[in-house]
Amino acid sequence: MAVIGIIDDILASIGRSVIELCRSVGRIVLFILLTLSHLFRPPLYVRELGLQMLRIGYFSLPVVGLTTLFTGGALALQIYAGGARFSAESVVPSIVAIGMVRELGPVLGGLMVAGRVSASIAAELGTMRVTEQIDALTTLSTNPIKYLVVPRVLAATLTLPALVLVGDLIGILGGYAVGVTRLDFSGANYIKVTVDFLEVWDVLSGLVKAAVFGFIVAVMGCYHGYNSGRGAQGVGQATTNAVVTASILILAANYVLTEVFFSA
Amino acid sequence: MTTPKISLQDVHKSFGPKQVLRGVTLDVAPGESMVIIGGSGTGKSVTIKCVLGLVHPDAGRILIDGTPAGRDRDAFLARFGMLFQGGALFDSLTVWQNVGFRLVRGKQKMPRAEAREVAIEKLRRVGLNPEVADLFPAELSGGMQKRVGLARAIAAQPEIIFFDEPTTGLDPIMSGVINELIREIVVEIGATAVTITHDMSSVRAIADKVAMLHDGKVRWTGPVGEMETSGDPYLTQFITGSAEGPIEAVR
C-alpha cells in the first residue's frame, strides 16, 4: 500500500506540474494575442518606440559585436583545424560566413540580447508593477499594454535584425582577421570567397530568425515583468524567468525555423 | 434625494480562498469628502480599485452618477484622479512630464509647451517651485513626491479623486501640510473625494463623512463629527487605538 501511495504522490506531482505548465502557456499565448491586437490599433506611442529602439538596438551593439567578433575568430580556427584533417583548409571563409549569417549571428545575438534586454525589461516592468506605476498608467487613461509592451515588442522585433546584420559582418570580420593574420589566407581572396559563396537567402533567413528572436525576447521580458509578484523577490524571480524562458524559446525557435528554411 | 456620485452595492471580491470584500455597500454624495478607515487587509484599497476597474468585483454593482461604467474606459477614467500610496510616479519621466502625463495624451491632448505650463501651475498649487519641474522623481524627498502625485491627480480637473494613504511615511508636519492641501484642493475644484487612511488626524482634517471597513463590510458610516460618540465598539477601538476590544490585534 505504501508503494502505491508513493506512486500516487509522484503521479499527482507530475500532473500538477503539467497543469501548471499548460496554464502558463495559455497565459503567455493570451498575453501575445493581447499585444498583437494592440499592435494594429492606434495610438502608437512613437516617442516610446524610438526610445526603446535606441535602448534595445543601439545599446546592445557592443555586446553583440564583441560576441560575434570573438566567435568568428574562434570559428575560423576550428574550421581550419577540422578542415586540415581532409585537406580542406580553404573552406574556412565560406563556412565562417555561412555559419555566422545562418546560425551563430542570430542565435548568439538573440541570446546576448535575451540576457541584456529581457532581464532589463522584466526588472523595469516588475518594479513598475510593484510600485503601482502600472495601475497609475491605467488611472491616467493610458493602456499599459499599448504604452509599455507594444513599443518594446515592436522595437525588439525591428532592431534585432539590424543588430544581427551588423553582428554578422563583425563575425565575418573576426574570421577574416584570424584567417589573414594566423592562418596565412590572402585578404582579397578571403573576401572574394566569402562574397561569392554567400547567397541572399542565407542572409535573409538569419534576419527573419533575428526578428522572431527579438519578438521572443521582448514578449518574455514584458510578460514576466508585467505579471511580477510582490516585492524584491518577485521582481528578481520575474527577471530570472524572463531570461531563462527567452533563451530556451530562442533555441527551440531556431531549430524549428532552420527545419522550415533548410530541410531538404 | 440626489443621486450619489459613487454608489457601491453589495460588492464582493475574493483573491483565491481569501474573501476580501464580503458585500460592501456605500454611497458617496457629489462634492463630499468621504474617508474610509479600517485595519490593514480589510479591503480599503481593493474597494477603490474596484471603482476604478483595476480590480474586477466578483459580485455587486458600482455606479457613478447612477450608471455603471460604460465601454469607453478612457472617457470613464478621465473623470478620476488618484494619488497612490507610494506616489507611483513614473521614474523615467521628469516631474512636469508626470504631472502633465494625461494632458499630452488622449482625446483632449494639448501641445507639450502648454501642458508644461499647466503642470508648473499645478506644482505651484501644491507648494512646489517651478525648478522642480525638470527633476526626476528619484531626486525628490518623500513629501515632495506626494505633492507631485497630488498635482498629477488634479492636473486634468477630475470630478472624483481617490487618495490612498496620503500621509503614510511622512512626518507629522508634512502630513498636516498634505491634509490641508487635500482639503483645500477638493473644495476648490468641487470634486468628490474618497480617502483611505489609518491616520486619525487625516480623518479629522479631510473628512465630511467616515466609513469604517471591517471584515470586508462597511461596519459604520456617518458624519465625522459623530465618530467619537457613535457607540460602535469596533469604531471606538479603532479611533482610540486600543489593543482591547472586538477587533483582534493579530490578524
Automatic annotation (TrEMBL), chain A:
Any one annotated GO CC term: ATP-binding cassette (ABC) transporter complex
Its biological purpose: Could be part of an ABC transporter complex.
Positions of transmembrane segments: 25-44, 56-77, 153-178, 207-226, 238-257
Cited Pfam families: MlaE
GO molecular function: phospholipid transporter activity
Topological type in the membrane: Multi-pass membrane protein
UniProt entry keywords in alphabetical sequence: Cell inner membrane, Cell membrane, Membrane, Transmembrane, Transmembrane helix, Transport
Protein name in UniProt: MlaE family lipid ABC transporter permease subunit
Similarity comment: Belongs to the MlaE permease family.
Domain of life of the organism encoding this protein: Bacteria
Places the protein is found: Cell inner membrane; Membrane
Keyword Cell inner membrane: yes
From TrEMBL, chain B:
Short name of one Pfam family: ABC_tran
Keyword presence, Nucleotide-binding: yes
Highest taxon in the source lineage: Bacteria
Alphabetized InterPro entries for the sequence: AAA+_ATPase (IPR003593), ABC_transporter-like_ATP-bd (IPR003439), ABC_transporter-like_CS (IPR017871), P-loop_NTPase (IPR027417)
Chain ranges passing through the membrane: none
One Gene Ontology term of the molecular function aspect: ATP hydrolysis activity
Protein name: ATP-binding cassette domain-containing protein
Organism: Halovulum marinum
